[in-house]
Specification:
Largest sheet: 6 strands, mixed
Number of strands: 6
Number of domains: 2
Strand order of the largest sheet: 1-2-3-6-4-5
Order of helices and strands: HHHHEEEEEE
Distance between the termini: 56 Å
Radius of gyration: 23 Å
Helix content: 25-40%
Structural class: alpha/beta
């Protein structure tokens, strides 16, 4: 009961800080609000032209200036400090009263750790092996970077193999064999898509579901679940 109430207090405190942060921007630091809106528009326009060098430069300059502007607000600093204190407090509590979980298995049941093709990463480029790798379902997350998944270099198993990629910022490329049918679910906040011939260079806040005609009855098929906050996705035949 105490833990439940404690979680509610934290949620209300975060909501209060967020509302007070908006109050500070609107009524106290109006210039900072105008600055944020201006650079937010500039950053958005730059992102629409990210394929040009000046577009990429403008986008990252805008992100940097917006970050600096936010960090210069008094309440934002105080909020970060308070969240840090709460995190340290909760970590200390968990160490003092750790929770133990005892999984229940059937007689003779054993867990087996299987190797994975790709792993979660914060930054950088990640690709599948260049040649002849055994396929395993992919489920990864990335913050900023480039992810390339080449399914032409492997043999997809029967059934419905799954590829799941959640990425914040960057580029995602998936190469599918010509004889494999595809079901693709994609979510994007702002970015460019090229999905098996369907193209949109300025897609914003959309969910897409694209399926090739013979997918329901095909013996060779793959299901793709992808999401990007800001970036470019390309799904093509190879």
């Amino acid at each position: 009961m105490f833990k439940h109430d404690h979680d509610h207090i934290i949620r209300y405190l975060i909501l209060f800080l967020f509302l007070f942060f908006l109050f500070e921007l609107i009524f106290i630091q109006t210039s900072a609000l105008i600055w944020l809106i201006t650079w937010g528009i500039i950053t958005y326009i730059a992102w629409q032209h990210h394929y040009r060098p000046e577009g990429k430069a403008g986008f990252w300059v805008g992100i940097l200036i917006i970050t600096i502007t936010l960090l210069n607000t008094t309440l934002f600093k105080f909020g970060l400090f308070l969240l840090l204190v709460l995190w340290v407090y909760r970590t200390y509590q968990q160490k003092q009263t750790p929770t133990y979980i005892e999984p229940q298995f059937q007689d003779g049941a054993e867990l087996k750790h299987e190797p994975v093709l790709m792993v979660n990463q914060w930054f950088g480029k990640q690709t599948t092996p260049p040649t002849g790798y055994p396929f395993k379902d992919i489920n990864i997350q990335s913050v900023i970077g480039e992810t390339i998944i080449d399914l032409t270099a492997t043999i997809l198993p029967k059934g419905e193999p799954l590829v799941t990629v959640h990425q914040w910022i960057g580029k995602l490329v998936i190469i599918v064999p010509y004889d494999v049918e595809v079901s693709l679910h994609h979510s994007v906040l702002a970015g460019k898509v090229n999905l098996l011939g369907y193209q949109d260079a300025r897609m914003t806040n959309k969910n897409l579901h694209i399926t090739t005609p013979n997918y329901p009855t095909a013996t060779k098929r793959v299901k793709l679940h992808t999401s990007l906050l800001f970036g470019e996705i390309e799904v093509r035949r190879g």
